[in-house]
Each structure stands twice: as C-alpha cells, then as structure tokens.
Amino acid sequence: MNILAINFGGIGDEIFFLPALISLKKEFPDSKITLALEPRSKSVKDLTNIIDDLFLIDVKGKNKYTELLKLVYLARKGHFDMVVSSGGNKLISILLTLTGIKQRYGYDTGKLSRILLTKAVPLNKKQYACAMYHDLVTPVTHHKTYLPEINIKKQEKIANSVLIHPGVSKMSVQKGMIKTIPADIWAQTVDLLIEKGKHVILAGGPDDKEVIETIRSQTKNKTFDDWYGKTKSLRDLAVLIGKAEKFICSDSAPLHVAVAMGTKTYVIFGPTDDKKLIPQSENVIAIKAQDNCPIKPCLWEHRQTTCENIDCLKITAQDIVQKVL
Fold first, then answer.
1. Which CATH number describes the domain made up of 161-324?
2. pTM for the predicted model, two decimal places
3. Which residues of the chain register pLDDT less than 50?
4. Topology of 2-137 in CATH?
C-alpha cells in the first residue's frame, strides 16, 4: 500500500496527525507513507519512523496555486493507492480527485465531497485534535491510536527538575495571536520555583530569543540551567523534555512533544480551547485565569486575533507555581 497523507499547518498540527498515520501503519505494516506538509513543519520527520517521505508544499507562500499544482504532479508521479487529507476547505475533494488516486478520504464538506471522495468523514471539531484527525482513517482501519507517539526512548529523569519553555511561534505573534503570559511573569515563575527548591531548566527555540533575554535579565536568582540555544532540533528538545520531571509551557508545539514523551505537563491557556488541544489526562494540566470572559475561548471560535484586554492571560507566577508544586 502506497499512501499519501496531506496535512497543512504548523508542527503542532503534524504531531496531532501522527496517531492517524500510526494507525494506518498498524493496518498496513508494509506500506510506504508520504506526508505532504508545509516546509515550516518538516522537522516532524525527525520524531518518527512512520513517515517514509515528505512533499514540501508551501501553501502559505505567494505561489499557493503553483504549489498545489506541484502537489498534484507529485501525487500522480508517485502512483499512490490511497490519499488521506485533512482540512475543511470545500475544494479539497477536487484537489484529491485531480491526483488520480483511487482511494480518497477527507472530511465531509458538502455534496461535492460526498460525490468525489471514496468516503467523506464527518468533521467533528469539538474534540481533542488527535481524535479529530484520526476520524479520517476510521473507514480503513479499526486500530485506534489516542496519543502521538515518537521514536525517542524513555529518558532518565533529572531529579526535582522543572523545565520551562515560555515561547510561542513567531507566526502567531505576527498575526496578533497572543497565547502566553508576559516575559516578566515567566521570570517571576523561575525565581519562585528556585525559591521552592526546584531545579529549574530554561529552554527555547529560535523564535524565543526576545522572551529568553527578558527572563535572563529580570530573574533575581541566576542558578537555573540555561539551555537556550543548546537544543539544535525538535528531537533535541524532545529528549530534554523527556529528562524533566515536570514541564511548563505555552500553547505551542513543545506542548504536543511533551504529550508524546509522557512528561507531566502544565500549559498556559488563554484565548484557545484546552479541551481541543490537550488530552483528557491527569498528566497534562491546563493553567487558566479566573476571568469571566463570556466568549472564552475566543481564538478561532469567535475571532482570528486576541483582544486588547487579554484578561484570559492575567495569570500570576503564584498561580503557576501553586499548580506545579
């Protein structure tokens, strides 16, 4: 079985998509799986051996339609037996038909999708995102994979450690999607955890330089382990997360890596919906403000940017540490 999977989005979306691919591999153990995704998310392949090949399709760039034509060309050239695609756009069923692949699975976006697809799957957005994506493969497998799994062995834990990854993607910031607390609150959290006797480790990616520098300058206690710049890849970060006893982060890709690693995780949530972004598990705890916003969570549900008040992110260092300890 030669399978093409299509899932456009950030690295978090690709980690959400892994359970569906894992179940396909369980059903068709000798299959080859090619994933079409955005170039910014290609590092997901470093976390898993489920994906055999990648098609990098820059649908967010200036040449979106040229890139989609490239996908059609590569799909036809690849002689695939099956294609599985996420996305709620009504044109996806047309795109999949143009690939010439006989077995086509995607979401039910209307009458056209029910005509063109082998099976149009109901799109249920009111559930954990892994489950939403996994619905796509239910027509072809009875296997059920609930959480993302990655190819990194269990790590020896650093005693009494709390790893902090404060950042979010630069793209979300540029789009006005504020999803985390200010850097000074992160700095206070570091100080308070050290005061409580915790071994604090600070990490971040290339997008997090500004927040890391602020934390460095505003912390009163400099005895934390500074790992910023030492994790050179998503895989390196996953190993570090695996070594931590506890992990504190924002609503961002490292959260989903932590879920896959099984590390006890505490996540800052403001305008986004924790019920869709974390599993129902005692191992993953949402930290939320006690605001009374009537439309919370609003991001994606009611608006595309965060409001100016950001009452939903008025979370103190004491609030965080109280949850973690």
1. 3.40.50.2000
2. 0.92
3. none
4. Rossmann fold (3.40.50)
